[in-house]
Records
---
Amino acid sequence: MIRIIIADDHPLVRFGMTKIVSKDPDIVVVGEAQNSHEVMELVRTRRVDVVVLDISMPGKNGLEILEQLKHEYPKIPVLILSTHSEEQYAVMAFKTGAAGYLTKRSALDELIKAIRKVASGGRYASSAFDEYLLFGLEKGMDKPPHETLTNREFQIMHLIASGKKPKAIAEELCLSVKTINTYRGRLLQKIQVKSNAELTRYALENKLLE
């Protein structure tokens, strides 16, 4: 029996995923979570074989939760499920320790296949992601600047590019405005742009915004 936790901040999404995986007699949902606190509480109190984690979560985002999970429970495989395409977030997710990455546009039976694969100790990526990596290797492409960002830097870049002001970002992330401005300066340097407008253009051109 594969015991899984489904972490997504949308109740209907959690309901739909639970209904899908429950069709498999070998998979059981032992808990649902809508934020980082609930994810960690479930992992600490229940026997869990796989965590299915949405990348867009309130408070700590999915990548930050993934980082915490891999630090505290390195043996529990995490399958990232996201609305974002593979080329946007998959590389960063795997670098952080994800065992698999699947988009919410994938076929329903692929979710069960991915859960089984990571539960058995394997890694799961779609054929689209494999092609993306292969294309990059064949072309000898350099790593894009956003793949060098930390999870927190990536999160702040996304918020800035979405039009949020430093004060609003600071309140959302429970950080000071000074800290946000420090991150902003670091982002401009790493992405090699000079303004928020150019940062937003970069995010749009690389399809980093929903």
Note: The domain at 2-136 is CATH 3.40.50.2300 (Rossmann fold).
---
Amino acid sequence: MSTLHTVNKSPFATTTLASCLNHALEGDAILLIEDGVYGGVVGTELAKALAAAKGVSLYVLSGDLTARGIDTARLVKGMKPIDYAGFVALATEHDRAQAWL
């Protein structure tokens, strides 16, 4: 059974992304939304941990990137920007969802 993990808080304000990474299993997906998208930017310790997550699919909500002025070229390698339709598709592809607030 796979889980869609959503992280909406900045990794510079909380430890939710780090906690999520500690619980994500092979076959799971992590979607960064709202201020959580800052965690997908290269050059941070958490970005290194995201890049090292084996067997976990990484996504970021493109509208939240745009709202924060983050270019997709600055994202961790392998992180896929998706729109709201993609978010819905991810939710239907996984057995459950876990929001990291």
Note: The first helix runs from residue 16 to 23.
